[in-house]
Amino acid sequence: MHTNNLLELNSNENSLGMADSAKKAIINTLDVGFRYPDDQRATLISKIAEVNGVTEDQVSLGNGSSENIGAVVQMLQIKALKEGKRMQLVVPDPTFAYAELYAISIDVPVVKVPLTPNDYDLDFANLQKVADEFDGISLFYLCNPNNPTATITATDKLKDWVKNAPTNHYFLLDQAYSEYINDPSFESAVEWVKQSLSDNLIVVRTFSKLCALAGMRIGYAIANTQTIADIEAFISIDNTNLSGAVAVLATLDDRDFLELSLQTTMQSQQMVEAALDELGLRYLPSQANFIFHEVTGSVKTYMDRMREHGIIVGREFPPIEGFSRLTLGTPDEMEVFIKVLKTFRKQGWV
Asked: Of the four listed, 215, 223, 233, 242, which is most buried by Cβ atoms within 10 Å?
């Protein structure tokens, strides 16, 4: 439950709020809320295909991209069982936990490979080693930009790895934060699907972040047509609600809002980075709507103290210690956060 009197900077939501165009679209369709949203769902799939430059049968809608992630894990588990093989999920550590949670729920073993020390990048050699030593199907879940670090991994390195992988290695690339990336070297894995780089590549994306529609629960997967058909078997039928569909369609057409949304987050990022620089607190280069920064002393104590000052910040993400994940809210919100952070320095707490 969300509390009105606390500043929530812990869930990577977009506190700018939904676009007015999205709100209007929802209100304008309340009169047809008793109808199934087949037409709106079809229009949304068509729009997503158009935006990404793929065909409609290369798109699978999810109730949030979390449903797509769960469906991919299930699909590969059933594929492995049918072929008399085993399946494992291989994840960098730390990363977004949903793939792991879905795997655990259906008894798929999860192997965690720590990020590289110091720069916290993907450890390609060890990720590969884990899969090479396994004779069944390996699914790599890779969040890029990664959550909680907000960093991206080198495009060329990742692309070569995916391209040259054996047929029993699958890649689920989660690009929830891709709209925030400003590194010119980054290439979206959607392009790799279009280039037919690998039959075993699935990309998931969401409208929860830049589009500020986390509560509407709309995400999607993009892959080749056969893989999408296989995933669709594990997606709940009619999983898209009317309000979510029309809100996304309105937001995607609202260029002014999307530009404002991005600019707001970038402004907040600059403010926070300047404050962290001033305090000499290390942070990783953010390519997302959050920042992973150092805290001296106990992160748990820091969280508790922030909460006492009306701010909820992110937790620690083992095995990385001494860092907190901070969601980049509006500039006004970050002003409040920075003020509190600086008082913490005066107290000798950070």
From this structure: 223
Alpha helices in the chain (DSSP H): 20-28, 38-52, 65-82, 98-105, 124-132, 155-163, 189-194, 225-232, 242-252, 255-279, 299-308, 331-347
Give the 3-state secondary structure of residue 119.
coil
Q: What is the pLDDT of residue 5?
A: 83
SS (HEC) of 192-255: HHHCCCCCCEEEEEECCCCCCCHHHCCEEEECCHHHHHHHHCCCCCCCCCHHHHHHHHHHHCCH
Nearest to 238 by CA among 36, 34, 31: 36
d(CA 236, CA 67): 9
For residue 313, the SS3 value is strand
Q: Give 303-319 pLDDT, tens digit per residue.
A: 999 999 999 999 999 99
Partners of 170 in beta bridges: 139
Q: What is the mean pLDDT of residues 323-330?
A: 98
Q: Output the pLDDT for position 3.
A: 56
Go through the domains of the chain in sequence order and give each one's CATH number: 7-16+256-347 (3.90.1150.10), 20-252 (3.40.640.10)
Are the C-beta atoms of 151 and 291 separated by less than 8 Å? no
| Model confidence band, residue 134 (pLDDT cutoffs 50, 70, 90) | very high
